[in-house]
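Quick entry between incubations.
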Amino acid sequence: MTERRFLLPDREMPTAWYNVLADMPSPPVPFLNPATREPISPDMLTPIFPMGLIEQEVSTQRWIDIPGEVIDVLHQYRPSPLHRAVRLERALGTPARIYYKYEGVSPTGSHKPNTAIPQAYYNKQAGVKRISTETGAGQWGCALSLACQWFGLECTVYMVKVSYFQKPYRRTLMRMWGSEVLPSPSDRTQSGRDALAKDPDSLGSLGMAVSEAVEDAFQHADTNYSLGSFLNHVLMHQTVIGLEAQQQFKMAGDYPDVVIGCCGGGSNFGGLTFPFLGEKFRGEKQGIRILGVEPAACPSMTKGAYRYDFIDVAKLTPLVKMHTLGHTFMPPGIHAGGLRYHGMSPLVSQFVEEGHVQPVAVPQVACFQAAELFAKTEGIIVAPESSHALRVAVDEALKAKAENRETAILFGLSGHGFLDLGAYESYLDGSLVDYELPDEQIKATLAELDGDLSFA
Amino acid sequence: MTERRFLLPDREMPTAWYNVLADMPSPPVPFLNPATREPISPDMLTPIFPMGLIEQEVSTQRWIDIPGEVIDVLHQYRPSPLHRAVRLERALGTPARIYYKYEGVSPTGSHKPNTAIPQAYYNKQAGVKRISTETGAGQWGCALSLACQWFGLECTVYMVKVSYFQKPYRRTLMRMWGSEVLPSPSDRTQSGRDALAKDPDSLGSLGMAVSEAVEDAFQHADTNYSLGSFLNHVLMHQTVIGLEAQQQFKMAGDYPDVVIGCCGGGSNFGGLTFPFLGEKFRGEKQGIRILGVEPAACPSMTKGAYRYDFIDVAKLTPLVKMHTLGHTFMPPGIHAGGLRYHGMSPLVSQFVEEGHVQPVAVPQVACFQAAELFAKTEGIIVAPESSHALRVAVDEALKAKAENRETAILFGLSGHGFLDLGAYESYLDGSLVDYELPDEQIKATLAELDGDLSFA
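Done. Structure below.
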């Protein structure tokens, strides 16, 4: 009987995060101050981030110790299991060995608490009383709510108004974990009041919610802001995923030939793959392929430009060099809400540009088909985001079958889909569609950048 | 740092179920044929159950080997973790050590697959092609759907019509796992057609759905019926829960002074507690207390009669001696749908009657209060059913605090609440209420039994 699950005992959870900045072949590209076009200095971030996190953002130290209090909290659900997908392999009739690292075991159901917990910790250490953040459908807001609850911090979540009213369940979860949840635009901030004055019935947007959360943090000395993906320190916190997977592959007596993760802002992807990339950069392992999967409806890596752009719609942030569709790009309403972002983490973008990461774009119906097969074989209902990585893992396994080739595939199963069953209902009813995304639309939003940012 | 999780490796999962019939001090009370009032013989059950399960229903062998194929499937999610609730202990300021066995890690989110899997297996072995069953909110229907999918069986689920339309998410899950789901009453059976002729707008009931599923199995030679709780073999399949917990307590170097489970039909409760009861019956351990928790709105054990009654509303089943509120009892609409049953497993009832199990009834608002505290400390959103066991565990820990007494408490966390967030929303909004259940209502439904069943 083939072993099905590889469980690490608590004491074997990693005690340090892996920082890929120590090993990457070329240095990271600096963030720029949009006013001066000069690299920003760390102290420009102190009004909204604690120094502990700012230091991690720019550190080039390879291993950064996870504080004991953070380890203690991570043990509520970590290490997470590595599974061998034996039933999926059989259904596909493939000689490939398929593994998945399952982050749906966290209390919020995704990988997001892996960074929410240390972010809450460092803010608590810095004497902060409250954290503000934005959330779309609610996955990040849930993780930060729980983390703040665990460290005795208050948490204010600006939730895009249309999701606040149409997807109430994650709002309920955030309230259960003790957060104040406001529909954005709200009357709590000037940005929100301005938006409501212009349109009292505004449904909000993620860009609007970011502006409110950042303004809230700027306006209150006891309040910081928190971001759930994209930045270096966020990706680094997620490396517990890949580090555990490496130990679990040793238990399995195997090593992946290909590692696959879905990419929204890049934190799930970076967390899973950077420890493997590091082994490659250091020359300890050769030949491993790293695939980053994005939705065909929001193809920043495969169709975007690699250039400087803003992180947010309201242009409050520094300029970052990344793969982008333009910060005014509005992706179609695919169900994988966590992958609907105009840009990509600068580290992931740089690795794509330098050929270390191979990007792949997939349409959503094909992802849900893979998710249905996975439900019927492995049992787990995957989040729509995770189904993108799964789709590519299945395709890799089918290629191996066609070539009658043994291979070991690892994909990141970043979360479960119990709060996405409306999407599955559409799929089963046949009303789920793929969106056509005309190249002209991407060209148009990128062209808008060429006014202010023509230097980039 | 106190150890937080006790994880058994796959190879240490139990390989035999524990059958409490081997050790119980007095023999089990027989089921009766309602027509003759004579004990029923096993062969009367063959039209709807496979012989493998009928033999287990009446066996007095202490250990019954789990077939290899069943173990192989259980390894998709078992062994399940035992957690020490350190954060909850701290929040309560109790000297008690609180442990919970967490069954929410199964793909369907509850303990139900533990019996759905062997039931599907024995039906497959018997050459059955299809299984019919009923489901209320859908927890049992989900588990059987997945199990049938794994063993290549078709599955037809009669789902109470009001839930089919008002709680579509578990219906979606059952369809993802490949089942046909019908709103009951349906036009597929005579019982359904009769009900629709009488009232085309009937919302259905669990009793109606049972009648349809049983009729379906009786009418088709290739189809069997499956029950998700109540019967001896179902409780026995669930003993993997308690057996694993016993091994995990050895890892923890501890042993529970009290074991607490919620009781609907009795399968979660029996699965957790019977292995501990067995140690007590065999004289290997003394002093352990076993608490069975039911909702105050459906108090079969604390306010029902111990007497013969039907399992179902339509009186299609044998007569069973049990704690019952009368098979015509309609419990108020509490959110713990899995605990809304007029009777109780005959084994659990007998242990209550003989003093081995102490029943406790709790109102729902107090259960949700405990669930909120649990979410804020341990992170997990518990199913409303499981919150009943949690409430009593918290009460036990508070008693220990008042008496400044160390004690070890184990409760069964039978499932997560991600599909019950509407109930949590009512709780947070303050609209959740406790139901007054007048003793007269219970007296009335019990009095109805005294016509046909006055002998009992």
